[in-house]
Amino acid sequence: MVYQSEYYFESEPYEYDYDGYQKQSPVRKILIIASIAAGVQYGWALQLSLLTPYVQLLGVPHKWAAFIWLCGPVSGLLVQPTVGYYSDRCTSRYGRRRPFIVAGASLITVAVILIGFAADVGHYLLGDTLDEETKPAAVTIFVLGFWLLDIGNNTLQGPCRALLADLSGGDEAMTRFANALFAFFMAIGNILGYAAGSLSEFYRILPFTKTEACDIYCANLKVCFLVSILILTFVTTVAVTSVSEEPIAAPTREGKVAIIMEHGEEVSTGFFKQLSFALLSLSKPMWILLFLTSLNWMGWFPFLLYDTDWMGKEVYGGNVEGNVEERELYNQGVCAGSLGLLWYVLTLGITSLAIEPLVRILGGVKQVWGIGNLLLAVCMGLTVVITQMAETARSTAAATSSGGELKQPPLKVKMASYLLFFLLGIPQAVTYSLPFALTSIISNTVGSGQGLSLGVLNLSIVIPQMVVAMVSGPLDALFGGRNLPAFVMGGIAAAASGILSFAWLPT
Predict the structure, then answer these.
(1) Using N-to-C axis directions, what is the helix angle for 27-34 and 216-242, rounded to 10°?
(2) Where are the alpha helices (DSSP H) in 354-409?
(3) Nearest C-alpha neighbor of 460 from the set 435, 424, 477
């Protein structure tokens, strides 16, 4: 039995060609909408590179830091399908995607202010004392801001990708190109974010951000987030003012939109019923895509959560809870990790522009997906090798040094780390583009809404993130707070996604 979506609108929002697909919009419009990813990803890069060390400075133990990251997947689990559903049906005179894009950008602005100023609000307004190991008020403000940040990200990104699919006019190559372009601008945002995160004295741009409650490290994060507000506001304003959407008329049937079966029998109205029905009626290719995407993100999240923490702790041998020298070494490792992430996003940006040619050269999407995930698995294995190299170097230095002072890792260890980050940009470009492009293509094939389809795909991203966040902290704690157990788990998941893609992913 074949299922399809049927929308009862008085007029269609876009002009259609003879095959029923929206006519392609100029590449310029796709370029402008895709640029929003740069503003979003600048803030996301700051999260990935600086927030895990930041929450530990607020007094949250390492083994509990992963649970704070549950804010993102929990909000994504609920917000993106809901936003996608309603953006498919929004009858605003400004269009169906742009109101959600503006709302998401506004939430992100409020959130980053709360996060950046959490320590100050906790100390000066809510009674945190500086001699407390854990600052409960600051942590509460931080978590609140983190929730809002992820709600804003999910409110903005889903409609952005749906609008790209709308503008692509049902053309598969154009859809892949639009999502690859989105990934390219994500790389641009990452470059700016990681570059800012690697600057140890970025706070000097706004010296008042350094306060009694907020040290240099905290002040750097604060300034980075203020810059992120400016970037996101600029790209969002340009996008929503220069790319117009044709308003759609209000649906009939008392404001409801029905999903009907092929022979015309109505089976569902309303959001939750339609979401449930959408999940139950997914085609086999979509189920395969969701499963492989879940494995892929289980491979990514351990490293995305702890990349700079790994550099500060395992590679540089520092300790955020240690003495002054150990904390300094840890901070140097975090800055080095941010610099490594800069190399990673450079590769991400270049590879994103090469996705469509790679699909053609290698003979299909499954080949690109499989190779990318196998490379991710190899990189996760390399973290074990690099950690062993760093520990061996520290042991040798300790045996030959009379003072026993802590030193940075040797050049070969640093270069191996930077090479690892450089290689990781290749599979990340695949992850940021192909699953979303395939979802849009499948959505066009079965006639379902782009927003809801991309929201369903998001479930296969946030559920693995929840699993990793719940498992990685306790797992690492069993091995003395090390990050490698979670990295190995991620490598196994990535290898499984790569191998199974060759056999299961549709051509």
Answers:
(1) 150
(2) 355-362, 365-400
(3) 435
